[in-house]
Amino acid sequence: MVRVLDGAQTAFLEEQLKAVFAEAFAEPPYGEGPPDVERAFRRFRSQVRRRGFRAAVAFDGETVVGMAYGYPLAAGTGWWDTLIEPVAEDLRLENGKRTFGLFELAVRPAWRRRGVAAEMHRALLNGLKNQRVMLNSRPEATAAQAAYRAWGYRRVGTAVPWEGAAEHDVLLLEL
Predict the structure, then answer these.
(1) Is the N or the C terminus of the chain less surrounded, counting Cβ atoms within 10 Å?
(2) Which pLDDT score, from 0 to 100, does residue 162 have?
(3) How far apart are CA 129 and CA 96, in angstroms?
(4) What is the pLDDT of residue 86?
(5) What pLDDT does 164 receive?
(6) φ, ψ for residue 27, nearest 5 deg
(7) What distance in Å separates the CA atoms of residue 112 and residue 89, rounded to the nearest whole number?
(8) Contact criterion met (CB below 8 Å) for 82 and 166
(9) Cβ neighbours of residue 89 under 8 Å, at least 6 residues apart?
């Protein structure tokens, strides 16, 4: 079952969401460990307080098995500044409502290939007033990349989203 939650409701699930993150991103191509989980959840604590934050969380009984969350990009977002090659100014233009940033989408390995990610994605986007959704994805994450293409995303560039990060494809979905 997937539930759409606001920031406060999502913050309450932090420990379970950390477990999802740790399991999902420990595998190749990510290879993330405890320091990466802690870095992600330092950001998470401020993300859940952002205006327009919403999450779609998948449960199997009381156990959290997947998560997808984000919020609308602010007019002054630095997300576009992480691109390696410049993009057209009209693509970069943000006003706080235009683009919903999808910051995490992860499913525990034992629950993959059951449509959980697609169900969370649909639930998260259902009712959004934004014009588009943007996310970053590692190019070598072939299963994720295939899902994003199937859902209608197109690649608009390459970014290094934080210092020391691997290159990510920047993907955009028009709503």
Answers:
(1) N
(2) 83
(3) 11
(4) 86
(5) 84
(6) -75, 160
(7) 38
(8) no
(9) none
- Under 8 Å between Cβ of 133 and 103: no
How do the residues of the chain divide into helix, strand and coil, expressed in percent and rounded to 5?
Answer: 35, 30, 35
130 close to 66: Cβ distance less than 8 angstroms: no
Task: Please report which residue ranges of the chain form alpha helices under DSSP H.
Answer: 7-11, 14-26, 34-47, 89-92, 116-125, 142-150
pLDDT tens readout for residues 81-137: 999 988 999 999 999 999 999 999 999 999 999 999 999 999 999 999 999 999 999
**How many Å apart are CA 75 and CA 92, to the nearest integer?**
10
pLDDT, tens digit, for every residue of 129-170?
999 999 999 999 999 999 999 999 999 999 998 888 899 999
> What amino acid occupies position 98?
R
In the structure encoding, which two tokens stand for residue 82, read together?
Answer: 């992480």
> Quick one: which of 61, 73, 70 has its CA closest to 5?
70
Phi-psi region of 156 (alpha: psi -120 to 50; beta: other; left: phi over 0): alpha
State how far Cα 147 lies from the chain centre. 13
Q: What is the pTM of this model?
A: 0.95
